[in-house]
Design goal:
CATH class: Alpha Beta
Shape: globular
Order of helices and strands: EHEEHEHHHH
Strand content: 5-15%
Length: 195
């Protein structure tokens, strides 16, 4: 993955051959802990959602995100390395739990540049990520899905993974407008941007 500092990216991956990634509540929490340990210090996370067979992050890159990892024969950026470490570590745990071998995730994690000056796509990506569980009919309301940052933004949970202050600044929403805007319809013609 290639990153430039001070930009917004939509990062996502799914299970190899669309297979399941999370088998129980403990798996979601295990992945979340790996994100906190590895990715959290390498970027500003604006929103996230873990789904049974895929995940989404909306992040804002920093200079630290784009630092080269030292002593590597092939140049790799810090944020790319932190995603690699997270997915690799999670895969090893699930392989042991499920007694499986082979790739758990698709080969390439996608990082779509949205840009810090593209408000329309930035806010659509932000809401799209939170809408995922509802659109997949896993819940009837976004606030019922525990494995996304939606509950943090509504005040139902005091999560500390997302930089909510930065998100509000970059995406131009308030605590008051967040909930109503979250349930807004994203036109179907705009959805392929995220696939």
């Amino acid at each position: 993955m290639h990153f430039e500092p001070n930009n917004i990216y939509h990062i996502y991956n799914r299970g190899n051959q669309k297979q399941q990634l999370f088998f129980n509540d403990a798996n979601y929490l295990y992945f979340f802990e790996k994100v906190k340990k590895n990715i959290f210090a390498s970027c500003e996370i604006l929103s996230w959602c873990l789904m049974p067979n895929h995940f989404h992050f909306l992040i804002y890159t920093t200079d630290k995100s784009c630092e080269l990892v030292p002593n590597r024969s092939i140049p790799i950026l810090n944020l790319s390395e932190q995603f690699r470490i997270t997915l690799s570590g999670y895969t090893k745990g699930i392989q042991k739990q499920e007694q499986i071998t082979g790739n758990l995730f698709q080969q390439k994690t996608q990082a779509k540049l949205i840009g810090s000056d593209n408000y329309r796509y930035s806010i659509q990506a932000f809401h799209y990520i939170h809408q995922n569980p509802m659109k997949a009919s896993l819940v009837s309301k976004m606030e019922d899905w525990r494995y996304s940052s939606f509950q943090d933004y509504t005040g139902m949970r005091n999560g500390n993974l997302c930089n909510r202050v930065l998100a509000k600044q970059l995406l131009d929403f308030t605590d008051t407008s967040f909930y109503k805007e979250s349930y807004g319809v994203i036109p179907d013609k705009d959805i392929p941007f995220f696939e």
